User: Fold Cys-Gln thioester bond-forming surface protein from Glycomyces lechevalierae.
Amino acid sequence: MRLKTIRTPLAAAAALLATAFTSAVAGAPAFAEEPEPVSGDIVTAPGLELRGRFDEERYDVWANILGLKPHGGEETLVVYCIDIHTPLDTESPYTEGEWEESGVANLEEVRWVLFSGFPNVAAEDLIEAAGAEVNPDWSDEEAGEVAYAGTQAAVWHYTDGWDLLEDDPVKGGNDGKDDAVLAVYQHLTEETGRVPDPSEFAVDLEGEETATYEDGRFGPYTVRSNAGPVELSADGGTLETEDGGAVESLKDGEQFWIVLDEGADQVTVNGTAGYDLPVGRVFVATSEEALSGDAANPMTSGDSQKLILAQPREGEVPAEWKFALDAPEASAPPKPQLPTTGSSLSIAFAAGVALLVGGMTVIVFAKRRKVSEH
Assistant:
């Protein structure tokens, strides 16, 4: 997956004359950065044999538990099959590929299944959330087999159009395993949501066009993030909440104000939204030569089974906003009975006034404006 930076176009030239004392250039939202590709070796463990069908055609399949041990790492990550008809290649290493090139459908729904299924939800918790009972005689491994099988069945439902049989869904599924697997499958397919692609995670800022200067500070500015809370810091000033508290992290829709350091006329605000996402990275079999970079074709999957990563990978969305601010000067203090009003900092876009940094920087200029005596 390749991420693209999209730059916000400037407003029409006619709007440049809307005001004489403020101007701004705004960048597009900051988007998630592409994680480094992962490669590793496949490991398997016994699972449950599931009974299902394609439309009216019967098709039974083993839901063996699959894992990927990344090269250079010790932990084995849980993966699922997204290619029910193709045998698993246990002899070749696997590396990350592109979903668009895999030919597999319904990525967003599959991500939701992974987010809501095993192991992102503990085995017993998932079984109970599905309305089934956990047999007290099951070992932790057996509970894991049940949760994995139900999650795998739900994945196949979206990637391959396969349906788990409602009657007798697990071969030899005694001790309640058949009921539990079916319950997990139904739980994960009845009201499926959508988990965005990491490239859709963005951090943005609102308020450049409406912010005012009042009581010694500029604002408010509103954080917009669909990637989770945004950690904020400032160089050249401090960030405050509405009641004057210190700002460290804000959620989507929450606001902050800027207080310039003494003698400063510019402040840089940095934001970072971290996310843990079962990103659904696709893995396909490749060759050692391809991984070494010596192959003309960097990836060859052949007829090997495609896999999808179930466990979270950490990522972050970094953003930066630069503000060149100049507080209004008062030639005399206002009378107590008169209200203090803010002055707009950014009403129009102006071309050629400031540089757009990386498509992710907002630069706001507020020219000095005198407050008349009262």
Remarks:
- Confidence is low (pLDDT under 50) at residues 1-27, 293-301, 331-374.
